[in-house]
Write a structure and sequence with these properties.
Layout (H helix, E strand, L loop, with lengths): L2 H12 L3 E5 L2 E4 H17 L7 E5 L4 H12 L3 E4 L6 H11 L3 E5 L3 H7 L8 E5 L9 E4 H5 L17 E8 L5 E7 H15 L6 E4 L6 H4 L1 H7 L3 E4 L5 H10 L4 E4 L1 H8 L14 E4 L6 H11 L2 E7 L6 E4 L11 H8 L4 E2 L4 E5 L14 E6 L6 E2 L3 H7 E2 L2 E10 L5 E6 L3 E4 L2 E4 H9 L4 E11 L3 E10 L7 H11 L8 E4 L13 H11 L2
Parallel strand pairs: 1-11, 3-4, 3-5, 5-6, 6-7, 10-11, 12-13, 13-14, 26-27
Antiparallel strand pairs: 1-2, 8-9, 9-19, 14-15, 15-16, 17-18, 18-21, 20-21, 21-22, 23-24, 25-26
C-alpha cells in the first residue's frame, strides 16, 4: 500500500469535512488535496522524480502536512530536518541525503543563507512566509508555486510500497548522523496498526504540538488522515497556546514528549482549561516517571497510554494499553501497567533476549536487550550497509534498549545499552558532545552522561579534566559547545575533576560516573 492511497481514501469519504486547522487557516479535505496536488505538480515541473530527495526545514504547519503527501505522490523521498540543528550540522545531513531542493520557512532564512557557504549540495529553495531575502539559491514562493489547481497528482509509474518514502536522520554512535529509511509499507502499516490500537475514528481531533520533523508526532499525519480526523497545528510549543487550542478545537487525542506534558500540567492555565473533549493522552519520545504519569492523568482527567518506539520502527514498538484481563484489576494495579513501557505494538514482534539470543525469563527481573521485527521496521540506514548489518541480524532489529518483561508480556526499559541521552525528547549521543569538548585546547579528558532532570527528563552533564597549566570556566565551555553543536546537545552543567573513574584496564568508566551522580544526587 502507498502513502497517496491514504489521502485518496479520506477524499472519497470526507471531501467536505474540515481536515486542517493552522492558525487562522482552515481547509477541508478537498482543499487540502488540491494544495497537495499543486505542490506535487510544482515539484514535478522542477524535475523531481521517483527516488529524488526533498528536504524540509519548517515548524509545524499545514505546509509540512502537504509536503508529506506531495513528495510521496511522486515516489520521491522527504527528508525532514531538525530546525534546532546548526547550519554546519544540517549541511552534513543534506550532503549525505543528496537533496537538491529544500522547502523552508522564511524564519530559517539565516540558516539557509549560511548553508550556501557549506558543502550542502542544495540548489533551490521553496519558501513559505514573507521574508525570503537570502539571494543565495534559486528561490520560489510556496503559494505562487501551488496556486494552479489540479484534479490529480503527476504520474509515478511502477512505484512499489517497498521503496523509501522518508529519510529521518539520527545521530550515530560515533556522532555522525545516519539516515533511517522508512518505506511506504512501513508508514502505512504503522498507521493502520495505530488506528486499531488507539481506536481512531473521524471523530478524533489531533493537535500537532510535538515537532513534525520527529516521529513522536509525524506518524499521526497518516493515521488521522486515514480515518478522516482533524489536524490542528501549533508552530511552536507554548503551554498556554496548546491548552487554549485543546479547549477551543475540542482535541480528543494527541502524543507529546514527557517534558511537554510536565510543562502543561504545571502551567497555571491548566487549572481553568476545559479538558472534557480529551479521551486519551499519549506520552512518548523519552522516559517518564510514574509520578509524572499520575499528575498527567489527574490534570487531564482522561485515559493515558505510554508509548515506546524508535525512528527505525515508524515509531511505535510498545503501548501501555491494557489487555482485557488486566482491566479487571483494581485501579491502582491497572495504573502500574499503564505507567510501564508497555506491551508489543500491533505491527511488531518483540523479544527481550540475552547476549546469546535466547529469551530472558518473563519474571520482571532478568534484563535483556529488546529486539523486534515486522513491517514497521526499517530496511536499514541510507548508504550505511555496515551499520545496517550491525543493527539488523537475521531479520531482527537490535534496539540497544535493555528491559525486563513480565508474564503478561509487558516490558519495562531499565537502561540503554548505548550511552544515548534523551533530553526533552531529543536524542543526544555522548560521544558527539565529548568530541567537541576534546577539541577545546584546555580539555584533557571528558565524559558526558545524562542525569535526571525534572524539566527535561535527562540533562546533558559533562565531567572535565583540564590540562596542566590550563584554565577554563563552566560558562566558557558551555558557550564553546553551543558554537559547534545544537543547543539541546550542549551540556547544561559541567563539573571539573582531578581524575575520571577508570576500569582495571585503564579505560574511562562511564557507569561509575553515573553511579557517583546518582548517589550524590547532583
Amino acid at each position: 500500500m502507498l502513502i497517496p492511497f491514504i489521502l485518496e481514501k479520506a477524499i472519497s469519504l470526507y471531501a467536505d469535512k474540515e481536515a486542517v486547522v493552522c492558525g487562522e487557516k482552515r481547509f477541508t479535505y478537498r482543499e487540502f488535496y488540491e494544495r497537495v496536488a499543486g505542490l506535487s505538480c510544482f515539484l514535478y515541473s522542477q524535475g523531481i522524480r521517483q527516488g529524488d530527495r526533498i528536504a524540509i526545514l519548517h515548524q509545524n504547519s499545514h505546509e509540512f502536512l502537504e509536503a508529506y503527501y506531495a513528495v510521496a505522490s511522486l515516489g520521491a523521498i522527504l527528508n525532514p530536518l531538525n530546525f534546532r540543528l546548526s547550519a554546519k550540522e544540517l549541511a552534513v545531513i543534506l550532503n549525505d541525503s543528496g537533496a537538491k531542493i529544500i522547502l523552508s520557512a522564511s524564519r530559517f532564512s539565516g540558516t539557509v543563507k549560511e548553508l550556501k557557504g557549506r558543502d550542502s549540495g542544495l540548489q533551490k529553495v521553496l519558501w513559505t512566509g514573507s521574508d525570503k531575502k537570502t539571494g543565495t539559491f534559486e528561490s520560489f514562493d510556496y503559494e505562487e508555486a501551488i496556486k494552479h489547481k489540479y484534479d490529480s497528482m503527476p504520474p509515478a509509474p511502477g512505484l512499489s510500497d517497498e521503496e523509501t518514502a522518508h529519510l529521518y536522520y539520527t545521530s550515530g554512535t560515533t556522532g555522525k548522523p545516519k539516515g533511517v529509511m522508512l518505506s511506504h509499507k512501513n508508514v502505512c502499516t504503522h498507521a493502520l496498526a495505530a488506528i486499531a490500537e488507539l481506536h481512531l475514528t473521524d471523530k478524533d481531533r489531533w493537535i500537532h504540538a510535538a515537532p513534525l520533523f520527529h516521529l513522536a508526532d509525524a506518524w499521526a499525519t497518516f493515521a488521522i488522515t486515514w480515518v478522516g480526523g482533524k489536524h490542528v497545528l501549533v508552530p511552536d510549543f507554548s503551554p498556554a497556546e496548546v491548552l487554549k487550542l485543546i479547549e477551543k478545537e475540542k482535541i480528543t487525542i494527541t502524543n507529546m514528549i514527557p517534558t511537554m506534558l510536565n510543562m502543561l500540567v504545571n502551567t497555571k492555565e491548566a487549572e481553568s482549561t476545559d479538558f472534557s473533549s480529551l479521551r486519551v493522552i499519549l506520552s512518548g519520545g523519552a522516559p517518564i516517571a510514574p509520578e509524572v504519569v499520575r499528575r498527567i492523568m489527574n490534570a487531564f482527567g482522561c485515559d493515558y497510554i505510554q508509548t515506546y518506539g524508535m525512528t527505525e520502527t515508524s515509531p511505535y514498538l510498545t503501548v501501555s494499553v491494557l489487555k482485557e484481563n488486566l482491566r479487571q484489576l483494581p485501579e491502582e494495579k491497572q495504573f502500574v501497567y499503564k505507567a510501564r513501557t508497555g506491551r508489543p505494538f500491533l505491527g511488531v514482534l518483540l523479544k527481550v533476549v540475552r547476549d546469546d539470543g535466547t529469551e530472558v525469563e518473563p519474571n520482571d527481573k532478568e534484563v535483556g536487550e529488546i529486539i523486534v521485527k515486522g513491517d514497521i521496521v526499517t530496511c536499514g540506514y541510507w548508504n550505511r550497509p555496515e551499520e545496517t548489518a550491525a543493527a539488523i541480524r537475521n531479520g531482527w532489529l537490535y534496539t540497544g534498549d535493555m528491559a525486563v518483561v513480565d508474564n503478561e508480556g509487558y516490558v519495562n526499559i531499565v537502561d540503554r545499552k548505548k550511552d544515548m541521552i534523551i533530553t526533552g525528547g531529543e536524542n543526544v549521543y555522548s560521544v558527539e558532545v565529548e568530541n567537541v569538548l576534546y577539541s577545546h585546547p584546555a580539555v584533557l579528558e571528558t565524559m558526558v552522561i545524562g542525569v535526571p532532570d525534572q524539566k527535561w527528563g535527562e540533562a546533558v552533564k559533562a565531567a572535565v579534566v583540564l590540562k596542566d597549566g590550563q584554565t577554563a570556566t563552566e560558562d566558557e565551555l558551555i558557550k564553546y559547545c553551543r558554537e559547534h553543536i545544537a543547543a539541546y546537545k550542549t551540556p547544561k552543567s559541567i563539573d571539573f575533576m582531578k581524575d575520571l573513574p577508570r576500569t582495571g584496564s585503564g579505560k574511562l568508566y562511564k557507569k561509575a560516573l553515573k553511579d557517583f551522580y546518582a548517589s550524590h544526587k547532583k
